[in-house]
Every structure is written in C-alpha cells, then in structure tokens.
Design goal:
The protein is mainly beta. Helix content is 12%, strand content 59%. It has 4 helices and 15 strands.
Length: 305
C-alpha cells in the first residue's frame, strides 16, 4: 500500500556535458558525449506519504471457541487511512535505469462496518461433552436473535510496522520532455497485530522541465499509479475495539479468541500530478498528489552524490 518515488531526474539534453568521475552509471561517458547531462549517480532521500484507500475484505475468520468458529461476519468493505515514512538509497546503474532500496515505518487504521452477523449451528464442532455442545447451540441461537446489536459496529485493525522494499526506475527524455516508469515491491511486518502487508506499485509519468542558473531546475509531471496491495492480519479479538456487549461476551466465552483477516486494496489505479524542484545538482524537493478513489499526498527531500 505504500511506496517511495525515485527522483524525477530523467535523461535531458544539455549543451554542457561533464566528464564522468564515477563508475556508475555504466555508459555514462557515452551518454554525456552525446550531449546529455546525467544526475549524480548516488542518492539518499527522506519521504513522507499520506494515504486514504478503500479496501475489500475477502474473509474474516474467528478461532478459539466452537461458537466463534461458526460465526459468519459480513463486513465486505473497509477504509484505510495511514502514513508512511521512508528512507531510500538509490544508484543510477545505467543512464536510463535507477535501482533503489527502501527502509521505513508504516502506520494506519483499517475500519470496516459490520453489516451482518450470524451463527451457523450446522458448523458447530463438537466438544465431546453433550452438555457443553447443547449450551453452544443455545448460545448460537441467541447470537442470531440478537445479531442486530452488531450491525453497524466497527471492525477496526490498527496497523504499525517496519517497511522494506526494492524498486527500479526506467527513464528517458527528448529535449525538455521526459518520461519514466517507477516500479517497486514493499513488505510491511506488523508489530501490534500479527501479519503483513505486501504491495506492488507501477507508476508511469511524463513531464516537462525548465532549467535555471546555478543548476536549479523545475520539473512538472503527470501520470498514473497502479498499486496491488494484499494484507493478511491476525490478532486477539479483544484488541479490535468492539462494542462493550460483544467484548464482554468474547472475554467470557474465549479470552484467547483470535481473528484472521484477508483483505486487499479496492482501487488499483489513480491519477497523480506533481512537481520537483532541484535547488542544485545536489538537493531536490518533490511533492505529488494522487486523486480518485485512492487519495495520496507525497513529499520528499533528496541529496545526490
């Protein structure tokens, strides 16, 4: 669900080429001999991203008691709101290809609204004790009769953890026009609830650049972002913040009861626009906004070497 943008520095035509003093990028001397000015090969950037995204809940499974395992919870949609703070290191391997690694921290909340709750007596597993099994059937019927209590209740998941990833950017330019495609894969390991978030991002962009004295440069761009997010989350039922009536029932019934949730991002594409300003060949600032069902705000500061 989260990603880091590589520098918008694409191949651009410039009359003044400088001799390459680094092994990278490979073929850099040839590119500069043809009149291209290349960005410095190595970079570090610190970025912040805020995101709001609809989520499709594929399944909710409860364990820890026969009645919990017989429950069917209908909460098909959720809303995710969160942020991501990342540090990225990158290198231009070729004049047209950048690779990078991501290390960061992710925090967010996924909140679904329960639309239906039922208990299927046919799915009640036997405990081997007839009295206990009879009590479980009575409890199952009671849940069905009082299911309206759960309607409209939030099913909230708090997600915090470290984010790691790798990515690559392919870039090119003609005159002052440039184009690039950024792709990355990230993995977030949760530290409050168990589970993980896996995300793949592909983002094509096109833009135009203006050069100024002192190495300053302004780049404006627009494009789209594809994001495939898969989330698998598990944890204690008592950590979900359910209504007191349900929480008390769970605490008495199965204090060690757990949940397993599988969900994924609903909207995979959105439109992005942004700008990058190079204060010099060493420092760059970038801002970007995403529109559509998935809304994003992104900013970063980069230092090139």
């Amino acid at each position: 669900m989260f990603r880091s943008i590589v520098s918008m520095a694409a191949l651009v035509v410039c009359a003044n080429a400088q001799a390459q003093d680094s092994f990278f990028p490979i073929w850099g001397d040839e590119a500069e001999a043809r009149g291209y000015t290349l960005p410095k090969p190595y970079g570090l950037s610190l970025s912040y991203m805020d995101m709001s995204n609809p989520v499709t809940v594929n399944s909710i499974e409860l364990t820890g008691h026969p009645v919990l395992e017989a429950l069917d919870i209908n909460a098909p949609e959720a809303d995710f709101d969160g942020y991501n703070l990342t540090l990225r290191g990158d290198v231009w391997i070729f004049p047209f290809m950048n690779v990078y690694g991501i290390l960061g921290y992710t925090s967010g909340d996924s909140v679904a609204t329960i639309r239906g709750l039922s208990c299927d007596q046919d799915n009640l597993s036997s405990t081997g004790n007839p009295l206990t099994d009879a009590a479980n059937r009575v409890l199952c019927r009671g849940i069905n009769e009082a299911s309206d209590i759960a309607i409209g209740a939030p099913f909230a998941l708090e997600m915090k953890g470290g984010t790691y990833g790798v990515g690559t950017t392919l870039a090119g330019g003609v005159g002052n026009w440039f184009a690039l495609v950024d792709m990355n894969y990230t993995y977030t390991s949760m530290n409050i609830i168990d589970g993980d978030i896996k995300s793949f991002v592909a983002a094509p962009r096109v833009g135009y650049r203006w050069e100024f004295d002192g190495g300053r440069e302004l780049r404006i761009f627009a494009g789209a972002m594809y994001q495939k997010v898969d989330q698998y989350l598990t944890g204690s039922l008592l950590d979900l913040g359910l209504p007191p009536e349900l929480n008390d029932l769970i605490a008495g019934l199965a204090p060690d009861g757990r949940f397993e949730v599988s969900q994924q991002g609903t909207s995979r594409w959105n439109t992005v626009v942004g700008a990058q300003y190079a204060l010099s060949r060493d420092w760059e600032l970038l801002i970007e906004s995403g529109f559509g069902a998935r809304r994003t705000s992104f900013m970063s500061v980069s230092r090139r070497f």
